[in-house]
Amino acid sequence: MLKNGSKFKKYSPEFKLSVIVEEDLIAENQRLKEEIPYLQAEMEYLKKLDALVRAEEQKNGKKRK
Length: 65
Known about the structure:
This protein has one helix at about 15-60. The protein is mostly helical and about 60 residues long. It is rod-shaped.
């Protein structure tokens, strides 16, 4: 460790790699956060579709496979 508490010198390859990894993780985190509303909407759609299919099958007396 350096005197100021940082593990890597700013010009070292390790520091550059850690900065790149951190930036990649932040970007991936942001992408995943943006994907959540889409996935929630898709789940709600699939639940409603499943309910409709079950109701139709019950109405027609059919069993699911």
